Amino acid sequence: MNLNLEAELRKKGKRSDLNELRKAGFIPGIIYGEGKEGILISLPKISFLKVYRKTIGEMAFFDISVDNKKIKTVIREKQIHPVSREIQHIDFLELHKGKEITLEVPIKIIGDAPGTHEGGLLEVLVRKIEISCLPKEVPDEIEVDVSNLEIGDVIHFSQIKSEDMRTKLSGDTTIVAVRAPRKIEEAEEIEEEAIEAEEAAEEKTEETTD
Asked: What is the pTM for the complete model shown?
């Protein structure tokens, strides 16, 4: 997804200046570029959020117009207020043609797992995967099809990893699983404990006999 943003240059100031900027309806930010000083910017909060909401759950690129230039970027980090949950500051990373970037791509679950109709619980254990690739190769999302999952089935990263996907994530990492209902799990745990107790008793009896 490619979106346009309008921004204004801002001067480096004190923390109080940033607070005043937020009160005036702006979100402070910075655009980082390799080998050069970051560009300090401010984004109109209302117009930014209108655009940003379109990106929820998807990978997005932002063409930022500032100081008569257009800079292609991705969001590298957001600072969120712990109470209000409002965005306090945004770090953007400038993209360069032909140069790899490392970023997180969201997981998208598709399909309907049959195991959930039998009481199983679908658990998504990984929601984003960090990959390295050229900007033009960045997928909007990584699809994981769960339409064949029964109770007890899992999907590992090795099952969805493409050949051109460079990442440090282990192939054994479980991405999604269909867990057994809690009552069944508890019954199995009780049964296992009973078997272990029975085996222990048998071993004790054998030792006594010897």
From this structure: 0.61
